[in-house]
């Protein structure tokens, strides 16, 4: 089978190559899935150079999430049958024609979603759900400011916030991205992600500021966000795409009465397994009902993986990039 292999940790994905590997045999409690689509996520890119906290033993195949069909069952697997359409998540291994995972790592593919959409919604919408529902406690009618709104997770957050009845302000860096966000999801406002956005946010919210701010950028964006968050607001720390980890003097959240909340969706599910299962069930139900609509920016053959990686690195993708093994 074809697989993208990381044989060496190197910059610019220099240790990666498309190779032929034996088709894996599922062990007890495992299922082999014929991968129809695998999404590209930033952790996949980081793992190729050792820049992510998880460092699999070399060689390994990247790929956090996938959609496909059950192809073979290991001993003791009773919940799945050959031919079942599934979605799944694994910490790596999805960028291949087949992947073997524990049976518990699989879920039914929502019928409404294509293979590509099904591969693209799990990580993004799970992060959005943990952010908005578990950590942000967002309520219908509240103002939600989403930074990095054109990225895979940011776009999912815009979509989910709308589905939850929030009033959404999407911030993105380019006019083309802003136009795409407006066309795809019609948030209440789409604004430029540039210094001075706090005044725009205050004007849009009637002076009170945003009740929930989703921030995967950090740096100056975080600093300015503390100036346009509402009293009793929740500032969600999701990542530091800007490269600078910001600091906030404790007197600012004290005086303004807001909370700074860290978001780690995967770790949340590992720490609270029951809630983690509920989170996945919730996004699956939203997808099955058509209340969320994952957007795929580009679909590429696995052989074109480098072009897909570059789309994320250049931050040109609006939504998710998906590979077809």
Automatic annotation (TrEMBL):
SMART domains according to UniProt: PKS_ER (SM00829)
Superkingdom as given in the UniProt entry: Bacteria
SUPFAM superfamilies (alphabetical): GroES-like (SSF50129), NAD(P)-binding Rossmann-fold domains (SSF51735)
InterPro entries per record: ADH-like_C (IPR013149), ADH-like_N (IPR013154), ER (IPR020843), GroES-like_sf (IPR011032), NAD(P)-bd_dom_sf (IPR036291), Zn-ADH-like_protein (IPR051397)
Single Gene Ontology MF annotation: oxidoreductase activity
Start and end residues of each Enoyl reductase (ER) domain: 15-323
UniProt name for this protein: NADPH2:quinone reductase
Organism field: Sphingopyxis indica
